[in-house]
Structure formats: C-alpha cells, structure tokens
Amino acid sequence: MIEASDGLEGVIAAHTVLSEVDGEAGRLVIRGLSLSELAGVRSYEWTARRLWDGFFEALPEDLTGPLGQARLEVWSEVAALDGPLARRETLEIVRALLARLADGEDLATALRLLAAPAVFTAAAIRARRGEAAVAPDPRLSQAADFLRMLHGAPANPAQVDALEAYLVTVIDHGLNASTFAARVAASTRAGLTSAAIAGLCALKGPLHGGAPGPVIEMLDAIGTPDNARPWLEGALARGERLMGFGHRIYRVRDPRADALKAAVRRLMRAQNTPGGRLHLAEAVEDAALAILAERKPDRSLATNVEFYTALLLGGLGLPAEAFTCLFAAGRMAGWIAHAREQVLTGRLIRPQSLYVGPALERVAFGRSPPGASQRAQGL
Ligand code: COA
Fold first, then answer.
1. Could you tell me the CATH superfamily of domain 42-208+328-345?
2. Which of 58, 114, 190, 373 has the fewest beta carbons closer than 10 A?
C-alpha cells in the first residue's frame, strides 16, 4: 500500500542538478557553489547563467546585455497598466502583466520572463502611487535598473550591491512550493510562461514568499526591544505564527538569513543609516527564538530567509506589500531552470490522492451517467 505524506514532507519528487538544501547542516549549494561564494560576490546575471547552463542552446556568456534588451521588450506591456489594474495589490498587477507574455520554451521567452518582474514591479509600485512608469535602461544590471525604474533616479552602489545580494540569495532553493508548482506546470509541457505564473501564484501566500511584509508589520507593532517578548507571546497566545521563523527543511538557522543580515549591515554602514532598526530586529529575533524553543522544544524553529529580507528591502525604499514581487524577481531564474530541467529530464508529475470520502453508496447497473468514466479516472 502506498503511504500518504501530508504536505509531501520527506517525499523526493525530482532529480535536480540545480540546488541542494541541507536542512541539518544549514547549507545551500547552488550548482556546486555554496551560498557564501555567491551572495555579495557574484552578480544576479552571472548566477542566473550558471543555473541555466545546459538548459538552453546558444546561451550567451554574459546575460547582462540580453537581459537589458529583454527589459526593453517587456516594457511595452506596461501600457496595459490602466486605472482599475493600478488599484490592485502589486503582486496581482505583476501577475496580470506576466500573463500577457507569450508561452514558449526558448531562450528569448526565458529572458523576457527573467526581465519582467523587475520592470513590472517598479511600474506597479509607481502606478499605485499615481506616478508614471520609468522606462528600462538596457545598459544597466537588473538590480541597478530596477532601483532606477523604481525611484526615478540612479541608485548608489551600496544599494545596488544590497539588492544584487538579495536576488542572488533567493535565486533557487530546492523543491520549495513555488518551484514545485512551476515544475508541475512545466511537466504538462505548458510552456515557460505558464510555469513561471504557476510559481508566482504559489509564492504569494504568507507561508512561502508572502512572509516579509508581515515581518515589517510585526517590527513596527513591537516598536522597541523591551516590547519584543510580551508582543510575541501575545501573538502566539492568539494562535498566530511568528513570521520569519520556521522552515520545512531547515532544522538549524537558514543560511540565507545570515547572507541577508550581512547585506543589511553593509548597506547601513555605507549609507550611515542609524542602526536602530537592525538593533530592534536582533532583539525581536533573540526573543522569538527563545520563546519558540520554550514552546516547541521538539521542533527546531529557527530564523528563515524572510526575516532579514524585510529589513533589506525596506532599507531600499520598497513598500512592504511589494516585497514578494522582489522574491519573485530573484526566484524567476530558478523557476525557469527547474521548468527546463523538468521538460528535458522529467515525466508528467501526477501523484495520487487517498480517498477518505463516504463509501460507495450503491453500485449502479446499466448505463453510467454522462461523464462518469472521466470522473472515475480523475482527469
Ligand atoms: N511560529 C509559531 N509556530 C510555528 C511556526 C512559527 N513561525 N512555524 C511552525 N510552527 C509550529 C506549528 O504551529 C506546528 O505546531 P503544532 O505541531 O503544535 O501544530 C509546528 O511548529 C510544526 O509546524 P508545521 O506547520 O508542521 O511546519 P511546516 O514545515 O509545515 O511549515 C512554515 C513551515 C515555514 C510554513 C512554518 O514554519 C511557518 O508558517 N512559518 C512562518 C511563515 C514564514 O516565515 N514563511 C516563510 C518561509 S521561508
């Protein structure tokens, strides 16, 4: 008999050459390199190319120029961002604009998808503020151009470095929920755009990519380090989860939390920003870890990637409700690589469910009702 696994915990559903998450050691390996060799060291374009190597024909050595051109290509879709759409959440705007892109399996489709979240997110944030969108500059890196399109002026090198470190840190992470969703769509041969949209939809929820916005709200509500413990205990007493803590795979600290905390430190030092917010975050983190260890001694609940994401993206002037779109901008390279890997090496993903509904009431003889055979096969 096949055993069911809630949430597919412990199930291996794909072979991949792309990334390995070691939850016991707290290590993330991306195509043979550890996160510490990538975040704050390599550009987003370089890391995306490393992920895509072998999955596209005639992949250029440097993706910076082609990605800049792809930003120009998707820019025309921003014209569809009209009044009613501009009143929606930033992620819903990005999802709607992404759905305008054609499906395909080729490099041109992949580059447009990689370019799209940066262009659409900047335009969506500005539209929500009633500001006109700023056109891409194809000569810049994706990180530099995103900040320029967002703020309407060139970003300083420290800001670009911080965003670059963020995009690289979140670029890929094993078979997380959004990557699995992308692979499921890709396994049906739906095309890269459909796979990317499936990934974005799965990323949206607060248990996956939607956590950093609530982290900022939590820090704002706590206000001062002294208030951390009572506030967190109150949240747990109300049955809430502490955002930015816990992970399905990691039983120790998420290495991405350290990579992002280091990037936040560098950004604050370069900008001479008062360290009050980082100090508050550290106090909240310490209090949360202590409380979670007291309450859940059997389940190791540590800091995850979302906690310092909130500080980093907030420090770059992004509104909290748009944080998930930046996660998507980074993860897009991973979704595309996984979708291609699925198409090239995998099979249709089609698990089974265990029926626990009412027993068959009666056995029908004679003619089946229309559509009965399709229902029985679960099509
Ligand atoms: N705060 C409080 N309790 C938490 C918790 C958190 N952040 N994360 C897990 N727990 C508790 C659960 O309530 C559960 O307790 P129970 O057994 O008494 O019901 C136990 O720990 C196990 O949780 P479970 O839901 O089985 O873990 P999971 O592997 O399914 O979920 C997350 C992983 C990430 C969804 C979960 O840790 C979470 O919700 N974290 C907060 C959201 C977040 O930061 N998401 C970003 C992830 S990168």
1. Citrate Synthase, domain 1 (1.10.580.10)
2. 58
H or E segment at 20? strand 19-22
C-alpha–C-alpha distance, residues 28 and 32, integer Å: 10
Average pLDDT, the chain: 93
Residue 247 Cβ inside 6 Å of ligand 1? The answer reads yes
CA 246 to centroid of ligand 1, rounded, Å? 5
Q: Would the pTM of this model clear 0.90, i.e. be above it? A: yes
pLDDT value at position 369?
Answer: 52
Give the residues across from 19 on adjacent strands: 30
Q: Supply the CATH classification number for the domain 212-312.
A: 1.10.230.10
Q: Which residue has the tokens 């009572």?
A: 230
For the chain, the domains span: 42-208+328-345, 212-312
How far the first Cα of the chain sits from its last, in Å, is 22
Q: What are phi and psi of 254, to 5 degrees?
A: -65, 120
